[in-house]
Amino acid sequence: MSTNQNRIEEFDAVDLIHAKRDRGELSTPQIDWLIDAYTRGYVGDEQMAAMTMAIFLNGMNRREIKDLTMAMLNSGERMSFAGLGKPTTDKHSTGGVGDKITLPLMPLVAVFGAAVPQLSGRGLGHTGGTLDKLEAIPGWRAHLTNEEMFAQLQEFGGVICAAGGGLAPADGKLYALRDITGTVEAIPLIASSIMSKKIAEGTGALVLDVKFGSGAFLKDIERSRELARTMVALGEDAGVATSALLTNMNVPLGFAIGNANEVRESVEVLAGGGPKDVVELTVALAQEMLALVGITDVDVESALTDGRAMDKWRDVIRAQGGDPDAPLPVARETHVVTAERDGVLVEQQALPFGIGAWRLGAGRARKQDPVQHAAGIDLHAKPGDTVRAGQPLFTLSADEPERFARALEAVEGAYRIGDPGEPVLDGGPLIAERIGR
Ligand code: URA
């Protein structure tokens, strides 16, 4: 990035790092300058790494977090759907194992006359990315121009596509730095990162699915609650009607963890079936997204059972070049793990199963790596289910059988068959709390 040699800089990065290191507060002009100077390359990665670690250790107050969010938002373009003639409402999940909810949710909400401009990303590490999942559908295209996106929202009311590099570019740079400096899990940095992108996307309303539990970014519900409250306040301050659901990520969502298998499971939900937890969360988030734009008197579940959500899905998949009837990719090899005894499945930890699917090829270790769309894990039982010795518990799928050993290592000790009556370790209800007006 070019820097102007003659420019007189307003601040010195070292002074700001000292201030945050010593638990001081950064002013609005200091934060604006820091993000601008980092985006244009004047402040280097080594200085920003020190700053993010100081923020990680010492935190930021609400005013600083808001300034950071606005500075990142102002580093790029801000989209507007004002001319669309329909309210816009979106959802963002902080990421979890088997979290395919965006797929059935987008068409379901669009059925009721709201438009869903869902700008998504790819997965890194054990949490999958929505674009990776949809790219399992033959022909489906993630990259749309702003004009194509607008036209699709106008005609069908829903789009899921890649977020362009023009939205909050400061976040792209900062997130990559945080990823390699151990500074991802800081609430001020997560909140500003997510909200700068979502506000830039131009949605009028936003529902945040903030996960807690073993498979989530933030494990304890208290920290997830703080993140949710921080993000809801940031959204409201920026004029976006925002609420959050705190949801349980101790156990994988649904039965499918991967890409093609998650599309398959989403289509089952759109056909009026699918796993109970996926349906429950999809319906709750749809009701919340619609309520934020004033659409309350509707029977959301009926659109799953009467085919309207499925028709919408088929329309939007076709609009992006996908063939909703084409067979999804199937892995060359499978490995089935069976129950070693009769009993009740009392534990199934989300994180190890996410890591297992990743090691099978469903996720990527580096940004530039491809994913294997057919790789992943299909669960055959969920916590609380009675199982019999020899019954399949889960199936691993991969193109290369050499991947099975490392995936099996990841899930070792992550599931347990107990005796009837033993407590089931699922972390409690799926939807723990709502935060918002
Ligand atoms: N997702 C983001 O976009 N940013 C974060 O910091 C964490 C999750």
Describe what this molecule looks like in 3D:
This protein folds into 3 domains: 13-59, Transferase, Pyrimidine Nucleoside Phosphorylase, Chain A, domain 3 (Up-down Bundle); 82-326, 3-Layer(aba) Sandwich (Pyrimidine Nucleoside Phosphorylase, Chain A, domain 2); 333-418, Aldehyde Oxidoreductase, domain 3 (Alpha-Beta Complex). The chain has 437 residues and is an alpha/beta fold. The model has no long low-confidence stretch (mean pLDDT 95). The protein starts with 12 loop residues before the first helix and ends with a strand. The chain has 16 helices and 13 strands. The protein has a 4-stranded mixed sheet, with helices on both faces. A 4-stranded antiparallel sheet has the order 6-9-11-7, with helices on both faces. A 3-stranded antiparallel sheet has the order 10-8-12, with no helix packed on it. The structure holds uracil. Uracil (URA) binds at residues 94, 175, 184, 189-190, 193-194. Belongs to the thymidine/pyrimidine-nucleoside phosphorylase family. Residues 344-418 form the Pyrimidine nucleoside phosphorylase C-terminal domain. One of its GO terms (molecular function) is thymidine phosphorylase activity. This is Thymidine phosphorylase. Its EC number is 2.4.2.4.
